[in-house]
Every structure is written in C-alpha cells, then in structure tokens.
Amino acid sequence: MHQRSHYKRTFLQYCAFGLTLCVSLSAGLAEDDFLTEEELYGDFEEEPTVVRDPLESVNRLTFKFNDFIYMNVVKHIAKGYQKVTPDPVERGASNFFKNLGYPVRLVGNLLQGRMKGAWLETERFAVNTTLGVVGVFPAANRFERLQPLESEDMGQAFGAWGIGEGPYLVLPLLGPSNVRDLVGFVGDRAVNPLKKPYSVIGGDVQTAFGVTEFVVKSPTLMRIYTQMKDGAVDPYSSMKNGYSQMRRAMIEE
Questions:
Q1: Overall domain count for the chain
Q2: Distance between CA atoms of residues 224 and 39, nearest Å
Q3: Cα–Cα dist 49/20, whole Å
Q4: Is the pTM of this model over 0.70?
Q5: Residue 69, in any domain of the structure
Q6: 47 found inside a domain
Q7: By the 8 A CB rule, do 55 and 167 touch?
Q8: 41 lies in some domain
Q9: Per-residue confidence in pLDDT tens, the chain, 253 aa
C-alpha cells in the first residue's frame, strides 16, 4: 500500500511537472485572451517554418499519447475545475501561481543582461506579494511604471546567446519542445525554490502544491492546446510549426 501511494504521488508530481512547460506558452495572456492565427502560425507563404525533426516517427507516437491524455484526462479536469470554481477565485489562483514564477523570470532577464527587466520583475513581485495578498490580486498593474513585461526563461536566454534550438522534441506529458528549451526548462526548475530538485518544500506538501498548480493551470493549457490543434489537416505539423515560430518570436523580442 505504501509503495502504491508512493507511485501515485510520483505520477501526480510528474503530471504537474509536465504541465508547467505547456502552460509556459500562455505567459502574459489574460484569462479570456486567445492567440490569433497569425500569432500561432505566422505568415507561412512569406516565411516558411523550417524545423529540424529527425525524430519525427518517435515524436508522432508521443504526440498521439499526449493527445489522448489531454483530451481524455486534462480536458475533463479543466472543465470540472471551471464548473465548480467561481471566476474571481479562478483568476486569483491563476495570479497566485503566476506570481510564484518570479525566480524564473528574474533569472531569464539577468542571463540576458536585462537589468531593468530584472528590477521591474522584482518590484512587481514585491507589490503583488504584499498589496496583492501573496499574488492573488495583480496589484502592480495599477501602477503605470509597473506594467507587466513579456515573460523570460532560460530557454529564451540561451536563444538570445545564439545557441541553436536543436532537434524538435515531443516529450511525454510535457508536449512540444526542442533540445535547447528542454535544457532551459530543467534550469528553470533548478532556480525555482518551489520546484524539484531543489525545492524548499517536500513530501505531501510538495505533492499537494504540484497537483493544485496542475488543476489551476489546466484550463489555460487546454485552451491553447485546442487552438493550436483544431482545424489543422495535420495536427502534429501544426503544433510543431506553431510552437517553433512562437518560441523564435519570443527570443527575437
């Protein structure tokens, strides 16, 4: 029984771990915002997307597995959460977890030498954590000079340094990525004191925290996932091109 419970906690933590990467695609979006077709896919006629995909056969199998999980598990979790949670509570929970992403945004700015951005992120975190009641309310948005920046992470920093993205990857539960972003994602977790492997919390608290974050972020994940997939003749290629163009655009900013 103890071993079964251990495996269950490990699976839930991995699900929460995987969701984080997917939800990172939604950074900076308001709860009711939608990506436009141009933002998702760009203008392919003028600038076709070229993505290295030597592992396509394996990636496609992983994509099918992920799609099954998203559409048969995550989708229902998201719907259930939205059904029982009042909109103000849902927004507050989303704001809370977004505020906790401060260490990743801070390091992303510092690695690119964006000192003003790092300082602004620090000020926003301080204001949202205090006046915004641990980040539940985006109090910093009320100040003209503290308007939010585009989120930064280690993968973007590596791209700004000129490091190539490497082959395209589809990771189990994690979704679309590439070698550079995968390394960056591991680095993002390393600098976040609430994430493994260097988490300051552990045991059942860590599990509860991860599962709660998973549930809170699941509606955003599903909204973006379905936008990038629906209406596509080949959902796999659509997701690959959409993800690659979006990450490249974030690096070029």
A1: 1
A2: 12
A3: 25
A4: yes
A5: yes
A6: no
A7: yes
A8: no
A9: 444 454 444 444 445 444 444 444 444 444 444 444 444 444 444 456 789 999 999 999 999 999 999 999 999 999 999 999 999 999 999 999 999 999 999 999 999 999 999 999 999 999 999 999 999 999 999 999 999 999 999 999 999 999 999 999 999 998 999 999 999 999 999 999 988 888 888 778 888 888 999 999 999 999 989 888 887 899 999 999 999 999 999 998 7
